[in-house]
Amino acid sequence: MTFEKLADTLKALADPTRLKIISLLRIRDCCVCELVPIFNISQPAISKHLSRLKTAELVRETRKGQWVFYSLNEKRLAETGLALSHLPDLSEHLKKLEEQGLLVTCE
C-alpha cells in the first residue's frame, strides 16, 4: 500500500463516529436506519460518514430491495494493519542527514 493510500485510509478512520461504525460492522452488516438511533445524528450525517468509509474502501454496500446494507471490508482493514506494521525502512534519510552534519542532538 502506498503512503498516500495508507494516509487516506487513516484519515477515514480518524473520526470517533467512523471508528464506532467500523466496530459495529465487525459484528454484523447494518443499514443506515439502524445507525441513526445508535449515534443520535441525522441520516444524512451517517450517510456522509459511510460514504467516506466507502471511498477509503473500508466498507461495502449491498442493496436489498429498498434497503442499503453496509458491511466491513475485512481485507482492506487487514491490509491497513499490515501496512502500518511493515512501513518501509527510511533510515537512509537519517544517514544522509548525519553525513551532511544536519542531525540534531538535544543534550
Automatic annotation (TrEMBL):
Q: Sorted alphabetically, which Pfam families does this protein's record hold? A: HTH_5
Chain segments annotated as coiled-coil in the UniProt record: none
Q: Where is the HTH arsR-type domain?
A: 1-92
Gene3D superfamilies annotated for this entry? Winged helix-like DNA-binding domain superfamily/Winged helix DNA-binding domain
**Has UniProt tagged this entry with the keyword NADP?**
no
Query: Any keyword Transcription?
Result: yes
Keywords attached to this entry: DNA-binding, Transcription, Transcription regulation
Q: Which SMART domains match?
A: HTH_ARSR
Q: Which InterPro entries match?
A: ArsR-like_HTH (IPR011991), HTH_ArsR_DNA-bd_dom (IPR001845), HTH_MetalResp_TranReg (IPR051081), WH-like_DNA-bd_sf (IPR036388), WH_DNA-bd_sf (IPR036390)
* PANTHER family in the cross-refs: ARSENICAL RESISTANCE OPERON REPRESSOR, TRANSCRIPTIONAL REGULATOR, ARSR FAMILY
Write down what this protein is called. Transcriptional regulator
User: Which organism was this protein described from?
Assistant: Paenibacillus cisolokensis
